[in-house]
Fold this sequence. Notes:
The structure holds 2 protein chains of 2 kinds.
Chain A: H1 3-32, H2 38-48, H3 55-64, H4 71-85, E1 90-91, E2 96-97, H5 98-133, H6 138-152, H7 155-170, H8 189-226, H9 229-236, H10 241-270, H11 273-278, H12 284-293, H13 297-325, H14 327-335
Antiparallel strand pairs in A: 1-2
Helix pairs in contact in A: 1-13, 5-6, 5-8, 5-10, 6-8, 7-8, 8-10, 10-13, 12-13, 13-14
Chain B: H1 2-22, H2 52-59, H3 66-69, E1 77-79, E2 92-96, H4 100-107, E3 112-114, E4 120-122, E5 127-130, E6 136-140, H5 155-166, E7 169-170, E8 176-177, E9 189-191, E10 198-200, E11 202-207, E12 210-214, H6 222-229, H7 237-240, E13 246-247, H8 259-263, E14 268-269, H9 271-281, H10 290-299, E15 313-315, E16 323-328, E17 334-336, E18 347-351, H11 357-363, E19 369-372, H12 377-382, H13 384-387, E20 389-395, E21 398-400, E22 402-406, H14 413-420, H15 422-430, H16 434-442, E23 447-448, H17 473-481, E24 486-490, E25 496-498, E26 509-513, H18 520-533, E27 537-541, H19 546-555, E28 561-564, E29 567-568, H20 607-619, H21 624-641, E30 644-649, E31 652-658, E32 661-662, E33 686-687
Parallel strand pairs in B: 1-17, 2-18, 26-27, 26-28
Antiparallel strand pairs in B: 3-4, 5-6, 6-12, 7-8, 9-10, 11-12, 13-14, 15-16, 16-18, 19-31, 20-31, 21-29, 22-28, 22-30, 23-30, 24-25, 32-33
Helix pairs in contact in B: 1-11, 15-17, 20-21
Amino acid sequence: MNKNFLMFALRKLATMILTVFLISFVVFFIITLPPGDFLTNYIGRMAEAGEAVSPELIAELKAHYGLDQPFVVQYWKWISNIVFHGDFGYSFLLSMPVTSVIKAYIVPTMVLSLVTMIFTYAISIPIGIYSAVHQYSVGDYLFTTIGFIGMAVPNFLMGIILMFISFKLTGNTMLGLYSPGMENAAWSMAKFIDLMKHSVIPILVIGLMNTCSLMRTMRGQMLDELGKNYVMAARAKGLKAKAIRYKYCVRAAMNPVASSIGWSLVNIFTGTTIVAIVLNLPSMGRVMHEALLDQDMYLAGSWLFLMAIMTVLGTFISDLLLAWLDPRARSEYLKG
Amino acid sequence: MKLKKFLALSLALIMTAGILAGCGGKEETPAETPAETPAETPAEVEIVKESPMLAELVAAGSLPELSERLPVAADIMVETDKTPENPQYGGTLRRNNGGEWDYGPFTEEPLFRLTEDGGVTPNVAKGYDVSDDGLVYTIYLREGMKWSDGEPFTAHDVAFYYNYMLVTDFTEENKIVSGYNGTTYNWYKTTDPADGVTKPAIVTVVDDYTVQIQLYAPKPLILQNIAIDNKWMFAPKHWYKDIVAYDTSVEHWTGLSHDVLGGAGLTAVTEEEAVANAAARNARFTFDDYTQLGNQLGYMYWSYKDRPTLRAWTMDSEKTDQTYVFVRNPYFWKTDAEGRQLPYIDTVEMVTMDNALYSQEMIAGNLDMASVDVGDFPTYKAGEAMGDYTVYSSVQPNWTSCSIELNQSYKDPQYAELFANIDFRHALSIAVDRNEMNEILYAGLAEPAQAAAPAGTAQFIEGAREKWTEYDPAAANALLDGIEMISNDRNADGYRTFTSGANAGKPVLINLEGHEKCNSAEAIALMAQYYKEIGIQLIEITNTARNTRQQKVTNGNEIMALYEENLNVFNPYVRPDRVGANRNICTWVGKYGLEHAEPMTPAAGSEMEEIVNLTKELSTAATMETAEAVGEAFLQSHLDNTWIVGYLSVTSKYTALGNDVKNFDADHISCDELRFYGNAKPYTWFMEQ
């Protein structure tokens, strides 16, 4: 790491902070856009519980939660609490601090996403390479077909189809991450095996949507590289085909893949909403969906905001990774 | 979401169809092997009186003996008529989680339980006396009864709740100040007709097992009101004393000593301290402020693990868990007729998932119980054999499940005038082909009916459900032709127009408020077609959240017309909320229902005035006869005026229940006042092991 690289990183960091700030403003604007606010939710719940709700009470609550104040004041309250106290506000849907909600869901969400991500890369990169090297072979056609099906079928539908197949084969839809009774049991081998069984469908479903596109990217990149002059030159100099392929071509073809790792951060954090609902996964997606529907503004807002931060952070990491991986990109960046 | 629901449902259907077609050879359970020759069993088999799960704990020394956990013998509540033959202990009942207002009532144990005929029966309370003047209610509690953490339950827990959590102050404007959840508990207030002064009841400790409620003026419905609106009229003082705000150095609003008010041993806690103490006790009890703390821990306490209760099962999960586990309360104070401690079932699990998935899980055998949405009825029914469950139906006192409420106090006076015209309401009623609607919306499962009480309920009136239901667009048109303020001829779009006033020349347009979570879109689309035949334009106002709609209703005059699919009327005088001018929760009564701010007086001599006067009369009714008479007058007014135009009614509540769950009584009335499944007493169900 030299001084130039550090300057480059700092410059990126500065723009990143500015971007995040702008995003936070937009996010807060968006969550306050729809008519009504979390109080309408609160009042609705009280009314459902058969309680009297008077207009004075509504006004009183509005003042209490600062909802009668101008947008900018509300925004400042929100963002300053996040920045200075790490306090993301209060979820009215769950009646607890937003940070507690995030804490409760973050572990299963991240584990699920990380496993899926590893699955995605472990499958798609080798297949991509294979397809490129054996272009137009039976194997290539087979993987291409599977790839296109995977890309074309919406993943929640894929989830339902796999559940159906599972039901026909095993008599169980494998909904959720555990069988009835296992969820709250102490950790044991049986519970682990149960978890593994139940993980197959979610990993396949969430994994496949990225796998297929990644497979195609890898294949395309490899094909590009394989046809380049340096390959021919190396071959002419007597290097083995395998050595060229893995030492040079794969490394170059990985660059776009590396740059996409950053964006995957968003998925890792949020999980996949619709799939999570269809497969009943205990990830963040389901709760956030409800938060959006019920205008639980701080929970929904924090979620959107964190998604944005993850995207920005991911891009930052990708930039650094690329600069480190690819000498061409590096020299360009370092020039300023 | 629609697509997803459709797909999930199709899957469930395919699964069912597949199995029905493909596997006729599903193995029959082998016939019971004939019983072995009876050995010399003693004539009387000793009855196991507690769950083996608890017996183990007793044996291990971590739980007191059963006799020490139950109240004194005479005060145990015995569920005589719900005792099954050969019940079995144990098992886990897995069911759908319908949210806090579903799992709460499921395990609810009120002070007094409301009965299906509108009376009350003691539950947590052992009994009561009323003084001759109807002012003093003496309530007897059960000696030796304990909270789920083993602490004694006494009169102090009732008085403490009332005086320090519920009615913490009483202002000059006759308002009850409720310290703990920010709402006003009006039903404890009574007005003395002699001087017109209104004051809340005073609740005091007589002895450890006796509480007294002293009313300011007679209110014969007070126990019903408690049974409906304040069934949890008690709270574990030992658990709350540092998380409720009070100051015993200041005189209480009653002017009585803190000791008789349940305040013995208390000193002072500020609101800030209460919030801090709760958070310090457990991170899960971190709340934004005292209002939230009160609303959650004080009011909706059943969602919080560790809060001692008197219920058969107590929450043992975090609120963020996907499956809520409720474990049996070892100190539950009820037994069956043979002395077995209830409940029979050890654990209840409430599983949260998307609504469309429950039917699949029932069919796959992963759930023991699910509350069935009417739209999913065919799916559930088709899967009965495969999932080894039965779909039961119970009566709901639902007046209607598809109706329109026209706002009698809508802010545009011309529309308000039009809506006040009974011919207009009747035209809207007979313009609709209810049978066709029923087929399209509910696969014929609902009943074409006017908004009125169904058979099987106390308020049923012969003929009321048929009134103005005969489909007759020509007659509807004739009725509208007779209304002067709207035209007989149609505009270019085919609608009638206003003939005069601010809206002159404009089409007669009803904005109907629906919401996403019900059948409204389909129903309103159909209604719009029928209305067009009689020259009335109908547009749906879509509310994505139920709550946005609720807020508009609350405002009183904002909504023009409301699509209502859940009109539950348990009893017109015990709970007149939807038939009288009692609350601002229904649109037909509009702003006249606002008893709180700026009461709007209806025109003298109008039918609406009658409704308002009846409501006032009910609130000061000194005898049961008066209350009953008001109830009947409400029903008559609805019969005469068709305030709510009903089209269809679903009177059954469907429940899918595993065939291994026994002693479920489908013949219970299902409604909020009776606590839905709570009315079927889940603690008397058992699971075949």
